[in-house]
Amino acid sequence: MDHASHLADTAQSAPDDMAIARRVAAGDRAAFNLLMRRNNRRLYRLARATLRDDGEAEEAVQEAYLAAYCGIAGFRGESTLATWLSRLVLNECLARLRKNARRQSAIPMVTDDEIEFVHADEHDGPDRVLVRAEMRALIERKLDELPEDFRLVFMLRSVQELSVEETADSLGIATVTVRTRHYRARSLLREALARDIDVAARDVFSFGGARCDRIVATVNTRLGV
User: Of the chain's two ends, which shows fewer C-beta atoms within 10 Å, N or C?
Assistant: First the structure.
């Protein structure tokens, strides 16, 4: 993970949120690019978990950024920029789901304290890399099979490591609901996998540099840069 993504994933509240928002509102494209790169990984994974399609997820994030660029003057710092952007992405994803009428059935959701997630090691041999890729694909399939309500809570809490309060704020639900759905999600994953899994949670719906660059370039192109 690059340094900017690490900051986006771990910071509880970025102290320069208002400063960045003001710079973007004033037309500072460099500040907007920084904002996108800080949040790309987080938002893509949220969109991917919601839409279950790589291309749709990229497009949803791009549309959310365009909405953010046009509306950031109204950002008042009542939540973090990351949370504010997450809401925009969720709104875009849900609008796409309604428009396409994609999901009619609900299926269960994911994760577990017993799952040990390990980061990829650049020194791993081909066999190890292959096993990790296969296990990651399995987890992604299981995530795609889960009900949307559980899946979103899991992604925000276990993958993006948001707090219960931040998750509740992003989804517009009570904190007790977050805890209940997250607990249920872990139980469902245990039942679905029925075995120990050794794979990196942060590798789920991997977000590479090329995808990051593509999202930033596409948004800038649409803004006329």
Answer: C
